[in-house]
Each structure stands twice: as C-alpha cells, then as structure tokens.
Write a structure and sequence with these properties.
The complex is a heterodimer. Chain A is mostly helical. Chain A has helices at 13-39, 58-65, 67-102, 109-121, 124-134, 141-148, 160-187, 192-200, 205-216, 218-233, 237-242, 252-260, 274-307. Chain B is of the alpha/beta class. Chain B folds into 2 domains: 41-164 and 328-388, D-Maltodextrin-Binding Protein, domain 2; 168-322 and 400-441, Periplasmic binding protein-like II (D-Maltodextrin-Binding Protein, domain 2, 3-Layer(aba) Sandwich). Helices cover 42% and strands 12% of the residues of chain B. In chain B, the strands form 4 sheets. A 5-stranded mixed sheet of chain B has the order 2-1-3-12-6. In chain B, strand 4 and strand 5 (155-156) form a beta hairpin. Classes of the chains: A mainly alpha, B alpha/beta. Chains A and B meet through helix 1 and helix 3 of A and helix 1, helix 3, helix 4 and helix 18 of B.
Chain lengths: 308, 443
C-alpha cells in the first residue's frame, strides 16, 4: 500500500497534516511536563501573581532527607510500590481468568462481560460512594455480614492497613473490566485452527493454554501489564474519595495532590506548595519511567523471543 | 490541483479548530469599577457547604436580586475541604467576585522558622484579594474582629461573619434524665455518665468521622482544659518548653484514648460530617462533641428535640471546664481583579446591614461579630454563660515546622479503633519525636 501526496513540495503534506497533532501534544502533554520539572526547582505556590523564587534542589532535599517528613514520604513511596505490585498481579491474573471464562461460546457470556466491565464506566466518585455505603460501619451490608460472625470493623475509617487493603480491592474491582476486555480482544485474534491442530496432537486444556493461548496473547499481556503498572503507580483519586488524607494510607500520587493544593493538615488554611509537589511529581515520574521502561524492555524481549 | 486545494483547506480548518479549542470561551468582562448601576452584572459568589448557611444565602440572594434587579447572583457551593483549592484556582482564573474565606486567623509568628504562610496570607501577598480598608460597612463590625480576623499588614481584606466554638459537647436532655445522669461538669462525671449510658445500651458519643477532622475536633476541648492558653501552647511547642510527651500532655493523651476508645460510638468513622447532627438528633446517641455550627442542623433534623451544649468537661476541676475554644469562622473577601467590583461591594454592604446580619447569625448560629447583633438562637443561649471565656483555639495558631512527621498533632484519632495506637505513652513519645524532627530540621 502506498500513499501519493505528489512530488516536490507536496511530499511535505503528510508532515503538515501531522503538525496539528504534534503541536497539541507539545502544548497539552510535553509542555506541562517540562514546566513541572522547572517548577520543582522553585517555591511556586500555583497562586497567580505570587512571587516565585528559585530554590535549586531544596524541594528534593526536603522530600527525601528532611526530618521525619522524609521518612513518611519514603513510606508513601513504599506504599505506592506495594499498591502497584498487588494491584497489577491480582488485576492481571483475575482479568485473564475472567476473559478466558467469558470468551467461551456459551449462552449469557455477553451479559457477564457487561457485568464485569460495568465498574469501568462509573466515575471514581460513584465508585467511592457505592463502596462507602457498602462499607458503612453502622449497619451497612458489609457490617451486617461481619456481625453474623460476631465481628465488626470500622472498614475505611479504621486501621490504616485495613483501609489501604480496601482501596486495593476497590481499585482492582474498578479496573479489572479493562484488563478483561483487552484480553478478550487478544483471545479473539487467535485463529481457532491453532486450537484444532493442538487438540489433534492430543493437547489437554492446560497444554492448550500453556502452548497456544499464552504465547499468542503476548501483545495483550504486554499492554495489560504496562497499563496496570503505570495506572496503579499513578493512582490517587480512590484514596481521596474513600479515605481522605489519613496517616498510614497515603500513596505518592495522593501526597502530590494534597501538598500541592493545601490538603495535608486537615485544616482549611494549609498552604499551597506546588513547587514541592512538583518535585514529588518528578520523583513519581522517575519511578514510573524506571519501572515502565524496565518492564517494557523485558516484555519486548519476550515478545521477540515468542513471536519472532 | 483539487487535491492540493483540499489539503490546504483541511490544514486551515484543523488549525482553526485547534486554535479555537485553545482559546478561552469566556468573554472579557467590563473594566473594573466602570459599571453603571443599571448595567447587567452576574456576580459570582463562592461559599462552602454548611446547609443552614447555604439555605440562608439562597434566601438572601433572592432578596438582594429583587433589590438590585441588574445584578444576578451566581452562587457556587463547595465542600469545606475543597474551599481553599477552588478559591485559589478560581481567583487565579479571574472566575470569582466574592468568596467565602476561612482560617483568616493568626499568620506565621516570629518564632516560627521556615514555615509556609497560610493560604489566606499567600492569596493577599499575591495581590488576589481586594483591599477593603475604608469601606463604610466595616464600621458595623467590632474592631477586634476586623483586627484579628480581617487585617493583614495594616489593611483590611475580609469581613468576618462570626465566631464559632468547637470545644463543646451537645447532650440529649431526655436521655440524661431518663438514666438519672447529671449534666457532667468534670471528667470523672463524664466518664461515669458514658459508662452508665453504655451499660444501658446507649452509645455515649458520635461524630462525623468519615470527614476525618470531626473525630478529633471534640477533643480540642480536652486539649483546652489541659492548656487553656493555646497561643502560649503553640509558642511553647515551637520553643521546646512544652512537649507532647511531658507529664501534662500525657494526661491529655490518656484522656484522649478514653475519648476515642470508650466514649465514641463504634462505627463513627463511617458517618459523614453533615450526617452526624441528624444521628444525634435521632436520639441514637446521648452526646455529640462538635462545633456550635451544628446547632441549626440538629434543630432542622428534629425541631422538638431537647438538647443542651456544654464545654467539654475534660478537667476534674469544674472551673477549668468553663472555657470555650473556637475560631473566627467564615468571612467574605472580594477578588482584587473582579470586573464587578461595585456590585461585589454592594453585596457585602447589603449583607453587613444589621438586619440582614442578624438574620444570618440567627440562621447559622454564629457568635456575632457585629456589636449590635443579638444571640437570639438556642445555641446562643447555651453559649452565653461562658462567652466571656472565649479563646481562639490551637489549630488556628499552629503551623507545623517543615520536616515534622505526620503524627505531630494532638489528635485523638490516632487511637484505636480509628488509628493504630493503644498506649498513650508510646503515642506521646511518637508525636513528640515527629514534632522534634521538624524543629531540629529548621534550626
């Protein structure tokens, strides 16, 4: 297939057509990212008209090395990694399992696909409201179930580890549908004659999965893993909606929002520290970059090995 | 040829759409101060969510618009936790005329090193709030209020609309009478009252713990009974003469544990802040430690409900429990860059009219900051006996040093079941260590 834009000056036409998109990308995506890097070296508040001073690496020094706050920041960093690893592993595995189930040629699979995908289309606020009601400790459905066994819990408002575990669970519930759909799309590209040939050769169900489905799902596996890792490293909205700014539950994404917009002290008069928040954003960016690039490198090598 | 023309037109249209998308859809407003009275003006007002206040403002806006038919009030309501963020973004975008401003209290003190100024101070320093100095309506407010909760660097930027108390406890008169409990005036009496109630299957206290701060706001009364001079407390903490793990503070932590573990009802962490007054008014619990601003919501939920309001009895000396701790609450400020300056000033002038202001404090239960206004409300009657002992509370003075850990606060919510701690001494040492780390870092 070839494109004919003519010769001489006309050969520039495709590049000109690309220009608006590129401009849009530079203005909307790359520009703010570069600005964040610059802001991280200042004491910017984000308030229009406020004096902005160059502070060099002070924000990074404060975030990583200053007093107990830096220990709390590193704990948030560690919590971010725990959140990301748990969400990625469970969401990926569950998404694949459910995709295999609803990809069967059985009655009602479309209904189940819809049910599993439904949480994705709800906004974070709706998701948060639903689960807050479900986990309402004074007679909510979860509290009633626990009471049958003589147990009780404060759920999201109680022990930070429990609240954190609930956010992990809800994050998986909310996004598993996307993982499932990507896997279903991948499953549907696998030619059925591959399975027929394998069956003729005597392959059982596990062997079919191990030697046909899994290798041919490689592009979907790669996409899902990267999306899950990056998405969970950047997650913060569910923390805001479900638990708020509570000791022992913050992840890096939420810490950035809270420090940037004066939400850290529980007081309505907290200061805005967008320079400091920008430094935290760059640290998160580096984390995502290192993990994302490493995973992508490993996945691409695997893809080349399997698919050639 | 036609292909080339088509390409050029496509490119032109794409650029036009892109530029159109990047441009602002808002039309520039009329120049500042140049409006004639009859000119149509839409006045953008921002307030925080407080149901009785919002209800009053809707009614006030209606009357205001009838009086000034050329002015349409477009009022936005945001959650209190989001007010500072929304204010900042809308001020920066020149998208607001009159705003509700919180925390216009003491700024950074000389003994505080390397602290970030509070939000309101940042807004003024950035030139985003209008200087109200010399406006006639300021004379309606008492001088102390203007000085303490509206002025900065010798200029007035806000009119404060009332003081509130957050160190009190609402109690259900009928329940206390039913179980023959005398209204507690000391800590021992309070503990005994809660035990009696619990024995009879009535949870002692509730709070809107889902919003976080309401769980510990009641305990500010407990803090106040131990440290009545809260400005001195903050100075002492900064200068190291008071520590969160000294003997006096340990008494506070021990009582806070009892408050969180034994007094607060199970499940309080799931109750939303604006649902807690209704739960108390329903008679499900006997007491409700909370701010005076909750009174209208309690009355609205159950108009016939009989309740009282007492200072948190945290000390065993009844005389130490006769203080109110609170803050200057909501104030009005005007955006410095508003194109509707005249209309905004008229709005504040009308609001400050003594009759309107009286209706406002009657509706929201604030302690008036206009000397001519009366405490007509039920909560006003409850507050009045100790009003001479009103003191601005700790959280209005406190700014944490950079580098302080996340536990450097006197919050009862650190204790189980809301937090992880169950040993007052261990917690006290942890809190002091978190504070000390910040103090050492800014030395």
């Amino acid at each position: 297939m070839s494109y004919h834009f003519g010769r001489k000056k006309s050969k520039w036409t495709p590049y000109l057509l690309l220009l608006p998109g590129l401009l849009f990308y530079f203005i909307i995506a790359l520009g703010p990212s570069m600005a964040t890097a610059v802001y991280s070296l200042t004491n910017a508040t984000g308030i229009k008209g406020a004096t902005v001073n160059w502070v060099g690496l002070d924000n990074y020094r404060e975030f990583l090395f200053m007093g107990r706050a830096s220990v709390d920041n590193l704990a948030a960093l560690q919590r971010t990694l725990i959140f990301s690893i748990t969400v990625t592993l469970v969401q990926f595995t569950l998404g694949l399992f459910v995709a295999l189930l609803v990809n069967q040629k059985l009655k009602g699979t479309n209904l189940f696909r819809t049910i599993y995908f439904m949480p994705v289309i709800l906004g974070v606020v709706i998701q948060g409201l639903m689960w807050s009601l479900f986990l309402y400790p004074l007679g909510g459905p979860a509290a009633k179930i626990l009471s049958v066994f003589g147990l009780r819990s404060e759920f999201l408002g109680g022990q930070p580890t429990e609240a954190f575990a609930w956010v992990i669970f809800i994050q998986i519930w909310a996004n598993m549908g996307t993982t499932m759909m990507i896997f279903i799309a991948g499953l549907q590209t696998i030619p059925s004659d591959m399975y027929e040939a394998a069956r003729i050769d005597g392959a059982n169900t596990w062997q079919l999965f191990r030697n046909v489905t899994w290798p041919l799902l490689t592009p979907s596996v790669n996409t899902n893993l990267l999306l899950n890792i990056i998405g969970s490293l950047q997650a913060w909205q569910l923390f805001l909606v479900l638990v708020g700014y509570r000791n022992g539950t913050q992840v890096l994404g939420y810490l950035i929002y809270a420090t940037g917009f004066g939400q850290t002290s529980g007081s309505t008069s907290s200061s805005f520290r967008q320079g400091y928040a920008a430094a935290a954003s760059i640290i998160l960016f580096l984390l995502v970059l290192v993990i994302g690039m490493s995973v992508q490198y490993i996945l691409q090598r695997r893809e080349r090995r399997i698919l050639g | 040829m036609s292909k080339r023309i088509f390409t050029i037109i496509s490119l032109f249209l794409t650029f036009a759409i892109l530029l159109g998308a990047c441009g602002s859809s808002a039309e520039p407003a009329a120049p500042t101060g140049g409006e004639k009275p009859a000119e149509k003006v839409t006045l953008r007002v921002l307030v925080h969510q407080n149901p009785p206040m919002v209800a009053f403002m809707e009614s006030f806006n209606k009357t205001f618009q009838e009086k000034y038919p050329n002015i349409t009030v477009d009022m936005s309501v945001v959650n209190a936790n989001d007010l500072s963020t929304v204010s900042q973004t809308r001020l920066s975008a020149n998208d607001i005329d009159v705003l509700d401003i919180f925390g216009f209290a003491n700024g950074a003190q000389p003994y505080m090193k390397m602290v970030e100024p509070p939000n309101w101070q940042q807004l003024i320093d950035a030139g985003l709030l209008l200087d109200l100095t010399g406006q006639d309506f300021l004379k309606n407010y008492d001088d102390n209020t203007i000085n303490d909760a509206g002025s900065y660097n010798g200029k007035v930027y806000s009119i404060n609309l009332g003081r509130v108390i957050y160190s009190g406890v609402y109690y259900n008169k009928q329940l206390l009478e039913q179980y023959k409990i005398v209204v507690p005036t000391t800590w021992t009496e309070l503990v005994a009252a809660c035990e009696t109630l619990k024995t009879n299957g009535i949870p002692c206290m509730t709070a809107g713990g889902k919003d976080g701060w309401p769980i510990f706001v009641g305990a500010y009364g407990l803090l106040g009974a131990i440290y009545p001079d809260q400005a001195a407390l903050v100075k002492g903490l900064w200068e190291g003469t008071i520590k969160w793990n000294d003997e006096k503070s340990l008494e506070m932590w021990t009582k806070m544990q009892v408050y969180a573990r034994d007094m607060m009802e199970e499940g309080a962490s799931g109750i939303a802040g604006d649902a807690a007054p209704g739960r108390f008014a329903s008679g499900a619990v006997a007491m409700f430690p909370g701010g005076s601003w909750y009174a209208p919501a309690i009355e609205a939920a159950q108009p016939a409900f009989d309740w009282g309001y007492i200072p948190f009895p945290a000390s065993d000396k009844a005389d130490d429990n006769k203080y109110w701790f609170g803050k200057y609450d909501q104030g009005w400020a005007i955006a410095a860059n508003t194109p509707n300056k005249d209309a905004a000033l008229v709005y504040l002038k009308e609001f400050s009219d003594p009759a309107n202001y009286q209706a406002f404090v009657d509706a929201v239960g604030f302690i008036p900051t206009q000397p001519s206004a009366k405490l007509n409300t039920k909560i006003g009657g409850e507050i009045a006996p100790f009003l001479a002992n009103f003191r601005v509370g700790y959280e209005q003075y406190w700014i944490a040093p950079k580098g302080a850990g996340q536990f450097a606060n006197p919050w009862a919510s650190y204790f189980k079941p809301f937090g992880t701690d169950d040993d007052p001494k261990v917690l006290a040492d942890k809190v002091q260590a978190d504070l000390q780390a910040g103090l050492d870092a800014v030395k």
